[in-house]
Amino acid sequence: MRRVITMINQLAVAANTNSALQLQLEDANQAAKKYTKESERLKQALNDSSGDKRTAQENKDLRKEVCKLKQELETSAKGQSTGRFRSNTISAFMEMMS
Known about the structure:
The protein is built from 2 helices and no strands. The chain is mostly helical. The chain has one domain. The two termini are 16 Å apart. Keywords: Coiled coil, Receptor. It comes from Bagarius yarrelli (Goonch). This is B-cell receptor-associated protein 29.
């Protein structure tokens, strides 16, 4: 009986963890879409600008922003793949228990 209660408790913890990971995955997807859209906007701004000194500084700033967004997107993608691994592990555990 004690073993059954322990297993039910572990299943509940795994289900909660799975839900949290799914939320994290959705947030990472939204962030990736946002950063991709912003990156495209910045690239377009770079292409549309002219060659004066002020525009050159704006281009430099925009390039830095694009690099920053790319790094954040990569970080988000890494977190997303880690979340998938954890989710798959939990799913396998839950299948094994049933």
